Amino acid sequence: MTAQPPLHDADTLAFYDREASAYAARTQAEPTRLRDFLMTLRPRAKILELGCGGGRDAEFMLAAGFEVTPTDGSSGLAAQAEARLGQPVRVMRFEELEEVAAYDGVWANACLLHVPEEGLADVLTRIHRALMPGGRFYAGFKSGDGGDRDSLGRYYNFPSEERLRAAYGAAGAWAPLDVTTGQGGGFDGVPRTWLHVLAVKGA
Question: The whole model's pTM is what?
C-alpha cells in the first residue's frame, strides 16, 4: 500500500506558532492583487481563505461585502486573525479540506508554497473539489529548483513554472490557468522571483 505524501510541514507550522505576533504585525504592501481577484467574483461571493495569517486579507474581503471563511494551519496565527476580525478563524491543515463545490473563490496567498512538493497535487485536487464550477483560485509561490528550507527553517516547495503547471494539471481541469512572474520579498528579507497563479475551475 502506497503511503500518503505529507501535506504540511510540522516545523514550518511550529515556526508560525512561535512567531505569530511578529508575523501578524509586519508591514505589508497594498493588496492590489487581491483587489483584482475580487473584481472577478460576483457580489457577496463565498470565499475560502487558506493561510489567512494575521487576518489582513480577510478583513479587506469582509469589508468589501464578501462571505469569507478564513483558515490557517497555525493556531497561533489563527488567534491573531480572530483578534483582528472579531470572528472565529478555523484552524485547518490542507489535508482537512473536504468541502465539495462550496466556494466561488479560494484565496491562498503565500501559503501553498509550504506544501511538501510531493503532496502539492493532492492539495490542489482538494481545492479544485471545493470550488464551484467556474470558481476562481489564486495562489502565490516562490520560484526555484525544488524543496528546501529558508534561513528561518521554513520549508518551501520552490517550484519551476513547468512543475507547477504539472501539479495543477494533475488536480483537475482549469480553464484558464494563468501564471505570471514578479519580484518580491518575504519575512526572511530575501528577494525572490514569485509565480502568481490564477486558475478557473472548468465547468
Answer: 0.95
Rounded to the nearest 10°, the torsion over CA 42, 64, 94, 18 is 170
> What does the pLDDT look like over 50-104, one tens digit per residue?
999 999 999 999 999 999 999 999 999 999 999 999 999 999 999 999 999 999 9
- Contact yes or no for 93/73 (Cβ under 8 A): yes
- The dihedral over CA atoms of 137, 140, 146, 149, expressed in degrees to the nearest 10, equals -130
Q: Distance between CA atoms of 192 and 103, rounded to whole angstroms?
A: 31
Run of H or E residues at 162: helix 161-171
Look at the alpha carbons of 162, 157, 103, 25 in this order and tell me if their dihedral is positive or negative: negative
In this structure, what C-alpha cell is assigned to residue 168? 495543477
